[in-house]
């Protein structure tokens, strides 16, 4: 398994320039996000940990959602990604959280489509939530390759959100200091 080392180093550098932390909550990426963060040079300084939840019974129990909420979606929805993120950011007391929910193989529940919902949270607020559709599944990529693709795409979006938030926070600080 090979991660984009330049991307990981960029995320590492951004965290080294701020006093913030991150946690991960994942389903479809099945630990790939957690592994990516653990591979960063200074991860012990900002990566608080993660949780992987894969079965409906654990999603109902941990996220305190009604079974009826997830029945029709097979535990895959933007709502589940959001709730996973809220749960993990609270449990790990992190500033940031990335959460995933989706499919890495075509299944009946996904109408034979491959996609991931993901949420990026900052200070327990959803700052970005989206869906990535994987249209290349006809090429018969392995589920691991799909998970790595999701991980890299989500980390790219996370890096953008991290940079944007740090810029906005520094402007707020500068505006307050000039008053």
Automatic annotation (TrEMBL):
InterPro entries: CinA-like_C (IPR036653), CinA_C (IPR008136). Pfam families: CinA. Residues 7-137 form the CinA C-terminal domain. It comes from the Bacteria. This is PncC family amidohydrolase.
């Amino acid at each position: 398994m090979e991660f984009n080392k330049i991307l990981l180093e960029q995320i590492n550098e951004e965290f080294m320039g701020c006093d913030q932390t991150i946690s991960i909550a994942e389903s479809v990426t099945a630990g790939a996000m957690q592994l990516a963060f653990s591979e960063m040079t200074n991860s012990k300084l900002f990566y608080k940990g993660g949780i992987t939840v894969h079965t409906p019974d654990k999603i109902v129990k941990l996220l305190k959602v009604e079974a009826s909420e997830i029945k029709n979606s097979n535990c895959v929805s933007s709502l589940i990604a959001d709730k996973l993120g809220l749960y993990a950011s609270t449990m790990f007391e992190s500033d940031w959280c990335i959460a995933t929910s989706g499919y890495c193989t075509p299944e009946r529940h996904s109408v034979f489509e491959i996609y991931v919902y993901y949420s990026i949270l900052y200070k327990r607020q959803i700052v970005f939530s989206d869906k990535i559709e994987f249209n290349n599944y006809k090429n018969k990529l392995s589920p691991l390759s799909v998970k790595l693709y999701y991980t890299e795409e989500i980390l790219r979006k996370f890096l953008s959100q991290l940079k944007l938030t740090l810029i906005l926070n520094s402007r707020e600080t500068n505006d307050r200091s000039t008053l």
